[in-house]
Amino acid sequence: MKERKKMNLKDYIATIENYPKEGITFRDISPLMADGNAYSYAVREIVQYATDKKVDMIVGPEARGFIVGCPVAFELGIGFAPVRKPGKLPREVISADYEKEYGVDTLTMHADAIKPGQRVLIVDDLLATGGTVKATIEMIEKLGGVMAGCAFLVELDELNGREKIGDYDYKVLMHY
C-alpha cells in the first residue's frame, strides 16, 4: 500500500455532552463517515493492520461494526460475519453473554460463520467497557477461529475495555 498523508481523524468526531443521558460524553463517528476522505483513510488504516495480521475473516458487532468492518472486508476481498442481538440471525446461532452496567446482554453469530483455523479480526467503531468484544472473542474461539486481533476507530481509555481483550493484539485509531 502506498504511503499516504496522515490525517487527524479526531477532526471528524463530534463530541456531544450529556447524550444519551446526563453525565455521558458521546463520541459521534457520523462526521467521519460523511467525509469520504476521512472514512476512506480510517478504513485503509484498518485494512493495513488486517493485511499485516494476515486475516481471513472480518467479524463486526452490530451496528457500527458493520459500518467499519464491511468496507475493510471488501477492500481485502475476504468475508464478513455479523454479530447480532438474539433473534436477528435466521439460521442456527451460537451465543455469548456479557455484562452491562445494569445486567446481562447476549450476542449471537451464525454457527457456521467461522471455519476452524480461520484468522479473524474483530472490527468495531468503539472500545468502551469491552463487554461486546469479549463476548465476540468467546464465540470466535468456540467456533475454532484464531484471533488475529481487534481494530477500533475509537477507544474510551478511562473505561479500560482493553483489559477484556486480554493478550490479543489490537489497533485503535483515536483515543479519548
Automatic annotation (TrEMBL):
InterPro entries: Ade_phspho_trans (IPR005764), PRTase-like (IPR029057), PRTase_dom (IPR000836), UPRTase/APRTase (IPR050054). Its main location: cytoplasm. Its EC number is 2.4.2.7. It is an enzyme of class 2 (transferase). It catalyses: AMP + diphosphate = 5-phospho-alpha-D-ribose 1-diphosphate + adenine. GO terms for cellular component: cytoplasm. Gene3D superfamilies: 3.40.50.2020. It is found in: Cytoplasm. Residues 45-172 form the Phosphoribosyltransferase domain. HAMAP family: Aden_phosphoribosyltr (MF_00004). Belongs to the purine/pyrimidine phosphoribosyltransferase family. Catalyzes a salvage reaction resulting in the formation of AMP, that is energically less costly than de novo synthesis. This is Adenine phosphoribosyltransferase.
